[in-house]
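Cross-check.
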Amino acid sequence: MPVYIALLRGINVSGQKKIKMEALREMTGALGFERVQSYIQSGNLIFHAPAGAPRALAQSIRRGIAGTFGFEVPVIVITGAVLREMMDANPFAPESHDEKRIYISYLEQPVDNSRESLLHKYMTPEERIVLQENRLWFYCPGGYGKTRLNNSTVERALGVKATTRNLKTSMTLCRMAAADSPDRYCCFISPESLKSKADEIKQHHPFTGSFFHQPSERFIMAFQEEMEVQGNFLFKHRGGLPVIFLVISLAVWYFTVHNGSGFMNTPYEQAYSYFCLAVSALGILFRVMTTGYSATNTSGRNTRGQLADQVNTLGTYSTVRHPLYVGNFLVWLGIIMMTQNIWFIISFVLLYQLYYERIMFAEEQFMRKKFGDVYLSWAEKTPMFIPRLRQWQAPQSAFDFGKVLRMEKTGVTATFLIFLLFELIRLYIRGLDFSYDNFWFVAFAVSLTLHLVIKIHTKIKRRREARA
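Predicted model, tokenized:
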């Protein structure tokens, strides 16, 4: 069955015509449509239905909304193929137009292009419009909130029902429809432009092959989907890489001590170890600041799948999109630095990037699909991994110390245990005696004691709550 996109007008705006997306999906499924998805709260549906006239499908959804929710809502339905054609026909070149200021008014039926002139009197000198049969493209540098080219104006001038979406929402709907259609194909630049670029690469590249002879955005979409699949898999098994690096790092450390390389047998040996601990402690602090102010029901240490009830944008999230992974990186960087092997440290940094970039890509795909423009507008100004501290915005919620203790106690104890293992290997190779007043042992013993106290207290508290 073909895939369709339904665009609802005027729901969940200023408290009027409220419809929860879950209820909307259920209603649409009850009409006999299959694999129904929704995107953000403005009323966008992707679904499968037997081949038929889009206007008939729109009428069916309109009647369903009226019968279920008690009010009328204009609905425009288009096929996934038509939406792909629309995106390919974008008249505004991204090189000279801010994509955040490009909008599309979807029209209920085609309109003669000559009627475009009827809208000129509502435009400012900076605004641009292009009428293409059943859609009106317009570019408004001042933003949609300030333009006079709203739905009411478009409907009055062109004499047809209309509903407007920005370019990013339209592109996201196209991707979602493409991912849910048999051909899994969606493009946003013309095939001619892509082939031109491929020909340019071919002229300067020593290898040739079918990819260069038949370039297609099918390859781009397939690559994105593969990245997302790999990311979701690695997300569920993201505890595996640190274990592998730990085993290798202890082996490298053994040879470092045995050969007396790095800072071994120098006045800087002990100071360097404390410096490594400081790097790991900075990572723990970054995690603590993130966990203490983060919203409830987020992924955290969960490995079953991504979770998010809202977009975190304050605190550490105002400086970087993935603060927990920044914290993890610093914790493990401090541990890997203990090996004092520069090539192993560089290998760790590169492999960490290769491993976690896929996880971050999958997480961002999840967030884009769930929160749409709310997430995208925040992501545009927030770096992915390297914090931009000057963007810091103070959290509005209180710091949850109890949550930090519950979530981070295991990581802190494990970190001190690993540093203790490094110390035990050093003592063993050098033939030195172990002492219970050793700094690393004391640090681990204290963290383990606190870990056990917190764990026991948590269990007792939960039992009391269960009884109550």
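The mean pLDDT is 83. Strands lie at 3-8, 34-38, 44-48, 75-79, 102-107, 128-132, 135-139, 162-166. Passed to J.P. for a second look.
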